[in-house]
Amino acid sequence: MRAWLATLGVVAQIAFRNLFASRLKTIIVGGIIFFGGLLVVAGNSLLDSVVASMSRSVIGSVAGHIQVYNAKSKDTLEVMGRMMMGDPDLSQLDDFAKVRASLLKVENVKSVVPMGISGALVTSGNTIDLALEKLRNAVNARRDAKTDGERAQAELQVASEKGHVRQIVSVLQGDLKNAKAVLDERTIDPADGAAVNRAASDAFWQDFDKEPFEALEFLENRIASQAADADLLFLNYIGTDFQAFQKSFDRMKIVEGTMVPAGKRGFLFAKHVYEEQLKLKAARRLDQIKEGTENEGETIATDPDLKRMVRENVSQVREILLQLDAAKTVDFRAKLQRELASQETDVGKLLAAFFQTDDHNFRGRHDFFYKELAPSLELYRVRIGDVLTIKAFTRSGYVQSVNVPVYGTFEFQGLEKSTLAGALNLMDMVSFRELYGFMSGEKLAEIQALQKAAGAHDVSRENAEAELFGSKATDAPAAKAPRRIEATTTPGVAPVMHDLGESLGGKLQREEARSRVFPSDEVERGVVLNAAVILKNPKKIKETIVAIEAQGKQDGLTLKAIDWQAAAGLIGQFVNVIRIVLYVAILIIFLIALVIINNALVMATLERVKEIGTLRAIGAQRRFILAMLVVESIVVGFIFGGLGAGLGVLLVTVVGKIGIPAKSDVWFFFFSGPRLYPFIGTSNIVAAFAIVLLVSAFSSFYPAWIAMRVTPRQAMQEEE
Amino acid sequence: MKKQTLASLLAAFMLNLFPGPAPVRRAEAALSSAQMVELLKLVDDRQKNNGDWRAAAYLEQKEKDKVDTVYETEYFRRSSDQKFMILFTKPKSSAGQGYLRIDKNLWFYDPSVGKWERRTERERIGGTNSRRSDFDESRLADEYDPSDEGDDKLGAYTAQKLLLNGKPGQDLAFPVIRIWIDKDTKNVLKRQEYALSGRLLRTSYYPKWKKIYSPSKKGDTWYPEEIRFYDEVEKANQTLVLIKSVDPNPLPQNLFTKAWLESKSR
Asked: What is the value of pTM for the model shown?
């Protein structure tokens, strides 16, 4: 043993000496190994930090550690964006209470949150439609008022809404005049002009209350149709149990409004969606210009985006004008004249001048807008406390609409700016189930009865012409029927028409449906599409997935469990792609390193034939020569790999203190906040050393083999 | 407006380049433009009621891997001002929903939320592949410019085939239509409806026609008892419309109003 150690000491001594003896070789080989070590440590640490941050974003915002859904589903569950358009085709989990009970039997499961993810188009009419809807509701409320107090309040509301509509009509009248000035008059329908003039007349408004519904129909059909198209809003939402959601995803916080109370219908907007899609566009652009100039160091003078926003604010003042009634118009005129020191009386022109901002006056105008003008405007298309109507084509094909009260907005701490984390809104489970439209047995029976009564039969596309037109129809009885008033044309089907005065669905309990408190049992025992599982020990995800699926089988449930990364869909795959790229880069670098080191060592060996021959002549065994060269390589690897890894550690530690700033909203999500603070994983240092030493040793085998074959005679011959 | 005209011309050009199956025989002499318009007017006139109209219709939508969607509806129309309304009566979950057309506005009402929404002529009625115009009086001569495509055989029938291009300024569910008109009866037997791009969207068959005496017209009004729509985009989807009962008598004056449709669910 002692002799072996002594030999190793000699070998190491020779190796160190050779490091300095052939400096060029050492620098080339060492440089490559240094860079490899640095890349393995820094690259992997950075990537691990991103994965850890992103997992916090995904787990903390919607997915939980594990997602569970029905194994019979055609598609896989993806909770954050899909490769394909539309909702994934998931089979339902019939009874959430059973699913939860089964999941809670698994030891590592801490909590379970019911879910369903879907989306729907929310259509609202144009600005005039919205104003007229309010007026119609007020007129309806006045008609249905039961007490004098209610009537008086409704009367006030009608008067206020009438004032607003009248103001909108006057804006429309101005638009028409402008259009006549710039367009060929023949392209403007004279009937439209006449309708606007009628709606703007005093006589029309004096007579409004005599036949309010007739007047409303006129305004809705002849005036509102002249306004530009309405905005469409597509909302993605998670149906869930709000209380369980908040408890399990503790980064969630309510920004405005309140949490939806237990058992109530309700909707919470993601703050990001609320700002981006529902805010008055002029106000949103002011926010963005402020963000750009104050937080991102941009200027209106140089940044094309900010310039565009200023231009749009100047040219799109109409959306503000349409919100003003007579009193607000006077108020705005006075305020703007004062602020701009202008004598202009046209509020549209005053607003355009006001929004003509530059780097010098922007901050003042921004503050003035929010202090003086915004309180008189509807800053958001849907306000907290409003009722949102969501319409969807259900899974069963029928149109289903629900009214859900908007309780507030929410965001996830640290992910405030992330579009990805802020894309999903929250809805109560009862409304979600109604919109998703699971087919009940009762409804299926009703449909089948209707089909049977209609006597319909299928005609396939392929046979349609032959079957439908194969022979000429004889004259049907109805063709020769006496001149009766009502014809029953399909044999066997009785006349189905109703008494026109008959109500169809009885008294619909809209208010009741909206305000009803659902017992927790009703929420719990219903259908869900998926469930988020929060674990006690997040490190045991794989084992828990196996345990969940096994427990499901035992309880007669077909549960499929996937980890957060799979549930995140495309986003989850993103990290895998980056990791593959990094590994390929490392592989290529070390392959190149292998070849270069090998060549350098071969060259060095050939230069040292004399020395090796001498060593062999004085009794060095081939084993000794092999060991000498391998150790030499390992020493190079150890020193330079160590230096590279060391620099990597230093780099990551320094960057870990400062943090890498998230440049865009996507990186906010990947960094789980405004900055990524990378950390060193011990495994990365160990991996770096292992790879470096392995490559060093491996690359020295061929040169060592050449060296082993050197004999003293060869060495002497070379000398000659 | 100009854009639509150009697009219509382009669509017509494309359809002329790829005219589909060759006609069985060319008409001995192609129809003149005036003759084609006359033919369309005749087709329209046979279906006109010149008064009020009420009918019950059964709608059935079949889609791949889905339970059928079925509705019982009633639809109402008034020739004088081209007002139109569809009221859904069954299934229970859809009862009280309805479409109302006044002037150029098509409204949809859902009583479960008490809201009116503005829709377009492209709206699929209740999610089926039928459009509002499928239930309305035929106004082909007013809405389209025809061009002759000769004669064609449809089973036992010989049909006059026309290509119709939407006139500018019309809000139409389909801007271009190919139509097969029975040479003997002048009933429409088949239609193929296209998008502006020239893409075939839907094929429709009208295998059964019935007539009823209309007091307002003081003559017979023809209506299709059965219409079958085959979706040409989602090939597995098809829609069946059965018109079951008709009543050509005058309707109450206040029928075509939002207030009336709302009152059905109050």
From this structure: 0.76
